[in-house]
Write a structure and sequence with these properties.
With 411 residues, the protein is of the alpha/beta class. Among the domains are: 75 residues, 2-Layer Sandwich (Dna Ligase, domain 1); 154 residues, 2-Layer Sandwich (Nucleotidyltransferase, domain 5). The protein contains twelve helices and 19 strands. Bound molecules: adenosine-5'-triphosphate and magnesium ion. Magnesium ion (MG) binds next to loops.
C-alpha cells in the first residue's frame, strides 16, 4: 500500500461528473494510476457549486469508489476550480537586485512587487504564475537565478477567484473528511495532462469543453499567457436536443454521445435513430441529420465565442501549434473537423499523457482535469520535496506556494 506522501489524488468536481483519480508517485516522478472513481455530479451549475448536499454525496461516492479500487484511504486531494467568477490578469514586477546577481530572494521580491495589488474583499488569489524575466535589457529569460544584472523585471499571470466559490468547494470536501491540498484552475490542470512542451513553447490554445463550462488557456514561450472561462458546455447541446427531439435530458445525453454529430455533412441522408419519448409513449424513428442540424449551430456558436476570446487575448495570430480540444464534449463526433474549418488552425483532441498503471482507464479527454491535477502537483511539489518537508529546517515550499501564503490562500 503506498504511503500518504507517495500518493496523490486529483478530484475533479465537474458540472457533469465527479472524477477522483489516485496515483502512486515514485521518487523519479513517475506516476502510476492505481484507482479511479466517478459519479454523476448533481450539485453544480456552470462549474460552480449551487447545492452543497448533493455535491457532498456525489464526491463521497466517487471517492469511495477510488478508495476501493486503489485499496487506500484518501485524506488529501488536489481539487479543480472553474466558473465564470475566474479572472486572469497579466502584470509586471520590477526591482533592483541586491548583489548585482539575481538570487532566489530577488525572484521572490519581483513577483511580490508584480502581484502587489489590492483585491476586492470577495476575491482571492488562486495562481501567481511567472511567465518570463528580463535582466537589464535582456528579456525572454526563464531561469534568472545566478545571472548578473542590476534591474530584474518579471511578467506574471495572476488568476483570481470568488472567495465564496472557493469556500464552497473546500466545505464540500471537508464534509467528506477530505483536506484540500490546493485548488487549481481546471484548465491549468488539464494543460498539464494533455499539452506537449513543444506546443507550449511555440504557442497553443487549450480548450476544455466540459458539461457546464468551456475553459481556455493560451500558452506561448513555455508559459501561460491568458486564461478565461466561457459558461457554455456540452449540457447546452443536450438541452437543445431535449427541446428539439422532445425527450428526457438523460436520453438526450445518451443520444448525443452515441449518435450526435456537429458535422451535418458527415451524416448520411438515410441514417435513422430511435428517440425514446417521454410519458411512456413508444420510441420514434428520427433522421440522424436532425440531431446534427441542432448540434452544429450550437457548436459553431461556441466556437465563435472562443474566437472572440482569442482575439481579445491578443494571441490569436501567435499560436503556431493551434488548438488542443479536451473535456468530455470534445468526444462529440465531428468536433475536430469543424474546429479545424472554423479556426483555420491545426486542431487535435487531447487525452491524458505520461501516466502508467491504469492509464487505459483514464485515456479519455473527460479525465484531462483529474489526471492533470495529479501532474500539476508533481510538477510543483516533487516527491523529493514532500519527504524533505518533514524537516523543519529546510523550506521546500515552492515559490508560488509561498506567494499564495503571503497573499492569503483561497480558503
Ligand atoms: N462521447 C461523447 N460524445 C459527445 N459528448 C460527450 C461524450 N462524452 C461526454 N460528452 C459530453 O461531455 C460533457 C461532460 O464533459 P466533462 O466530463 O469533461 O464535464 P465536467 O468536467 O463534468 O464539466 P465542467 O468541466 O464543465 O464543469 C457532457 O455534456 C457530456 O454529454
Ligand atoms: Mg471539467
Amino acid at each position: 500500500m503506498p504511503k500518504q506522501d507517495q500518493m496523490i489524488v486529483g478530484l475533479d468536481i465537474g458540472t457533469s461528473k465527479i472524477a477522483c483519480v489516485v496515483a502512486e508517485v515514485s521518487m523519479d516522478g513517475r506516476l502510476d494510476v492505481i484507482g479511479i472513481g466517478t459519479h454523476a455530479s448533481r450539485g453544480l451549475r456552470k462549474g460552480v457549486v449551487v447545492d452543497i448536499e448533493s455535491t457532498v454525496e456525489s464526491i463521497r461516492l466517487a471517492v469511495e469508489e477510488a478508495e476501493l479500487m486503489a485499496g487506500v484511504e484518501i485524506k488529501k486531494v488536489h481539487v479543480g476550480i472553474a466558473g465564470s467568477h475566474i479572472r486572469g490578469h497579466n502584470t509586471t514586477g520590477i526591482i533592483a537586485t541586491r548583489h548585482g546577481e539575481v538570487t532566489a530572494e530577488d525572484v521572490q521580491r519581483v513577483i511580490e512587487n508584480g502581484s502587489a495589488m489590492k483585491l476586492p474583499d470577495d476575491r482571492t488569489f488562486l495562481h501567481v504564475m511567472p511567465q518570463e524575466y528580463s535582466i537589464d535589457d535582456q528579456d525572454g529569460i526563464r531561469e534568472p537565478i545566478g545571472m548578473s544584472g542590476v534591474r530584474l523585471q518579471a511578467k506574471i499571470h495572476l488568476v483570481t477567484a470568488a472567495i465564496s466559490s472557493a469556500h464552497n468547494i473546500r466545505k464540500c470536501c471537508k464534509r467528506c473528511g477530505l483536506e484540500v491540498s490546493e485548488l487549481v484552475l481546471e484548465q491549468v490542470a488539464s494543460s498539464c495532462a494533455v499539452l506537449l512542451q513543444d506546443e507550449k513553447d511555440i504557442g497553443v490554445v487549450l480548450v476544455d469543453i466540459g458539461g457546464g463550462t468551456t475553459d481556455i488557456a493560451v500558452f506561448l514561450d513555455g508559459a501561460i499567457q491568458y486564461t478565461s472561462v466561457i459558461p457554455i458546455g456540452g449540457d447546452h447541446l443536450t438541452n437543445d436536443l431535449v427541446v428539439g427531439l422532445r425527450t428526457s435530458a438523460r436520453e438526450a445525453d445518451e443520444l448525443k454521445r452515441k449518435h450526435g454529430s456537429c458535422m451535418l455533412s458527415d451524416v448520411g441522408e438515410h441514417e435513422e435513430v430511435q428517440v425514446p419519448s417521454v410519458g411512456g409513449r413508444d420510441p420514434r424513428p428520427m433522421p440522424r441529420h436532425i440531431m446534427a442540424q441542432i448540434l452544429q449551430p450550437r457548436v459553431e456558436e461556441l466556437f465563435d465565442l472562443i474566437t472572440e476570446e482569442l482575439q481579445c487575448s491578443g494571441y490569436h495570430e501567435l499560436v503556431a501549434a493551434g488548438i488542443v480540444l479536451t473535456g468530455g464534449c470534445s468526444l462529440l463526433s465531428g468536433m475536430e473537423t469543424l474546429a479545424e474549418e472554423t479556426f483555420d488552425m491545426p486542431v487535435r483532441i487531447g487525452t491524458p499523457q505520461n501516466v502508467g498503471g491504469l492509464a487505459d482507464v483514464v485515456n479519455s479527454p473527460a479525465y484531462a482535469t483529474a489526471v492533470g491535477l495529479i501532474q500539476y502537483s508533481t510538477d510543483h511539489h516533487p516527491v523529493a520535496n514532500r519527504v524533505r518537508q518533514r524537516d523543519p529546517v529546510v523550506s521546500s515550499q515552492p515559490l508560488w506556494q509561498r506567494m499564495r501564503n503571503w497573499f492569503g490562500d483561497a480558503s
